[in-house]
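idk why but the lab printer keeps eating my pages so im just putting this in chat instead. protein + manganese (II) ion:
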Amino acid sequence: MTLTYYGHSCFSVNIGGNILLFDPFITYNELANTLVDVDALAADYILISHGHADHIADCVRIASRTGAKVIANWEIHEWLNKQGVTNTHPMNTGGKWNFGPFTVKCVVAQHSSGLPDGSYGGNPMGFIVTSEAGNFYYSGDTALTLDMQLVPKWAKLNFAVLPIGDNFTMDVADALTCAQLINCQNVVGVHYDTFGFIKIDHEHAKKTFAAAGINLALPAITGSVSF
Ligand code: NI
Ligand code: MN
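predcted complex ->
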C-alpha cells in the first residue's frame, strides 16, 4: 500500500490499483493549493471522516469529476445527494462493508461534525480499512479515547494515520499513546501546520515517537510513503 499526502488530513492510499482518497481539502489550504491540482487528483473512492469544511471542502468537486464512490456517515451521504453527488455509500459508527478490493469498518471518533452550510453532519468517524494488501486505521479528527483499545480486535495494522496538531485533536503525545493502544508501529501524522492553532515542532514530534520506538512519518505535500 502506498500513501500519498496532499496536506492537512487529505491523503490517498493505493490498494492494488484502487485509489482511496480521504478528506479532500485542497482549494482553501494555502500550504497545498499551489502544489496539488485538485482537478487532476485521482480517486476511485472518497472517504469522509466528518462534515467539517477542512475535510469535505473539495469532495463535491472531485466526486463530480471522477465519479468516485463517496463513503461517509448517513447525514453526509444525504447532504452530498442534495449537492448532486449520488454515487454514495452511507455507513455509521460500528458498521462495516466489503467494497470488493477492501473492507471499511467505521469506528468512534471523539469530535464534532457540522457541515459547512450549518446542516447537521451526524457523528464523526474513524475508519479501519482491511484488504489483502494490508490494513490501516485513519482515526479522523479525534481526542485520544479508550475506544481505540478495540482497534486491534478488528485488525492487525500495517500503519495508522493520526492527527497530531493539538487544539482541535490529539497532540503528539496523545497520538503516541493512541499508537500504543492500537498496537501499531507506523504512524503518519496529519492535521498539523495548516492553521496557526495547529503549528507544531516537527523535530520534537519525531523525537517523541522515536523515543518510544514507533515510526512517525511526516511526508511532504505530494510525498509518498509505502507500507
Ligand atoms: Ni474537524
Ligand atoms: Mn479538522
